[in-house]
Amino acid sequence: MTRHGKNCTAGAVYTYHEKKKDTAASGYGTQSVRLGKDAIKDFDCCCLSLQPCRDPVVTPEGYLYEREAILEYILHQKTEIAKKMKAYEKQKRAQSSEEKLLSRAPQDSRVQRFLKREGSIVSKPLNPFTTGEGGAQCSSEVDSKAGPSSAPLPSFWIPSLTPEAKPTTIKKPAKTVLCPMSGRPLKLSDLVSVRFTPLNASLNRVGLLTRQDRYVCAVTRDTLGNSVPCAVLRPSGSVVTMECVERLIRKDMTDPETGAKLRETDIIPLQRGGTGFSGSGVQLKAKESRPVMQV
Known about the structure:
The protein is an alpha+beta fold and 295 residues long. Helices cover 32% and strands 10% of the residues. The protein contains 5 helices and 10 strands. The longest helix is centred in the N-terminal third of the chain and has 53 residues, at 67-119. It is elongated, with a radius of gyration of 38 Å.
């Protein structure tokens, strides 16, 4: 425990600061750390690679991905689903064969009982001229030979008779690929190409990524960032601010770039990261659950 003298206090109270230091040093108790802006991805970064997108695509829920990263993810998930389906089919065949063996067990047991009774029949004829005592002795000898006491006792220490754990039951896997962020079904046809409008068209990609303000709204030319709510228009893939959507686009529901008519589902709000402030509505606290000492 932390000494009070090292914390410049002469009181007998176990302060909150000392408790936090002891909790961190002991390894027990849940710890929480507030995240800063450096720990939150930018609005134009891929949700998988966490890097600025070269060829961005967006899902209907508004999550931005690099096209190469999300295609690789979908391919990997389909491969894993195929492997799980093969294991499930193998388990299903094993269960069906086991059920067949169980259905044949009563018939096999009847056959075994019949063979056992056939083997216990005495083939040597009895001498009718012997005395009753001798006949009784012969019958007792036959019964003693055919009795169950002649069978050897099973040994429970051999490996084939030791108890075994049953194999884990495999559930039938779902054939749909799920989005890694929203958890909803994801199809390749649902991905919408995104076209950001750069702030300065003369800059190359390296020069653009070094700037803090990289992209602007395609209509109002307002700077885009994590603090600015924005949306993607499905027909053209242009990125505009939500203020532009509410004030201009919703009036006639027309894409300003292509002139195509828009539906409500064609306006995809883009999921953005936090700003580092609690008012942004993003969870900015990370927790690590650890064992708790109880008295």
